[in-house]
């Protein structure tokens, strides 16, 4: 049995906790406190190295439309590619890569890692299916490449701006935050 401390039980952590709990072999403790807004614990050089090595992707569960594919993680319906209408928006150009991972795959990897009695590698990681934006958008007919500087300024120049549809937001809250979130996600998924 392993005693596991979880800091901040958000949606992803809740999925992992459920996976670990389902084994019946671990004691799980939730640590919570008010988050500090300072990031002084990691030296600047290490933060830069990790930022360069770790590229964001997305959970496939986020783009499942109205289908509930996980217990805690919900679809946001914030899509970069609208295959039905043949449109897409990407940051930079179509040669950028990103990763797609199912939350169930992440949970299974974490459970196996926790239960592995061997020595963990000094350098490790998790990577889902890596693909180019061009691979995902090949189905679409109208591809819109967004300028990075526009995205940094919160500007999306397209006739089809994807909207955010999240269970925790009222209709009035969705529109004002959809564009900034889309800009941030597009910029974070690319170098």
Explain what the structure shows.
- This protein has one domain.
- Helices cover 34% and strands 18% of the residues.
- The protein has a 3-stranded mixed sheet.
- Strand 4 and strand 5 form a beta hairpin.
- Helix 1 crosses helix 3.
- The radius of gyration is 19 Å and the shape is globular.
- The mean pLDDT is 78.
- Keywords: NADP, Oxidoreductase.
- GO terms for molecular function: oxidoreductase activity.
**How many domains make up the 3D coordinates?**
1
Rounded average pLDDT: 78
* Count of helix runs: 6
Structural class: alpha/beta
Poorly predicted parts: none
Total DSSP E strands: 8
Shape: globular
The major beta sheet can be summarized as: 3 strands, mixed
Helical fraction equals: 25-40%
Spatial strand arrangement across the major sheet: 3-6-7
Strand content: 15-25%
N/C terminus separation: 40 Å
The gyration radius over C-alpha positions equals: 19 Å
Order of helices and strands: EHEHEEEEHEHEHH
Descriptive terms for the model:
single chain; alpha/beta; 3-stranded mixed sheet; globular
Task: Indicate the topology.
Blueprint: E1 2-7, H1 11-23, E2 26-31, H2 44-53, E3 58-59, E4 81-82, E5 87-91, E6 97-101, H3 103-115, E7 129-132, H4 133-137, E8 142-146, H5 148-152, H6 171-188
Parallel strand pairs: 1-2, 3-6, 5-8
Antiparallel strand pairs: 4-5, 6-7
Helix pairs in contact: 1-3
């Amino acid at each position: 049995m392993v005693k596991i401390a979880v800091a901040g039980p958000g949606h992803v952590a809740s999925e992992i906790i459920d996976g670990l709990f389902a084994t019946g072999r671990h004691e799980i403790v939730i640590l919570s406190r008010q988050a500090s807004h300072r990031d002084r614990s990691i030296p600047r050089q290490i933060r830069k190295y990790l930022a360069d090595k770790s590229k964001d992707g997305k959970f496939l569960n986020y783009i499942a439309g109205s289908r509930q594919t996980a217990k805690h993680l919900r679809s946001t319906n914030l899509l970069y590619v609208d295959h039905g209408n043949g449109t897409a928006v990407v940051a930079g150009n179509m040669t950028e890569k990103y990763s797609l991972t199912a939350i169930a795959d992440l949970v299974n990897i974490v459970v196996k890692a926790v239960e592995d009695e061997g020595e963990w590698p000094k350098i490790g990681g998790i990577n889902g299916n890596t693909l180019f934006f061009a691979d995902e958008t090949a189905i679409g007919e109208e591809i819109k490449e967004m300028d990075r500087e526009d995205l940094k300024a919160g500007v999306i120049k397209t006739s089809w701006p994807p909207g955010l549809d999240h269970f925790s937001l009222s209709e009035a809250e969705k529109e004002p935050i959809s564009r900034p979130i889309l800009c941030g996600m597009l910029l974070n998924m690319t170098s």
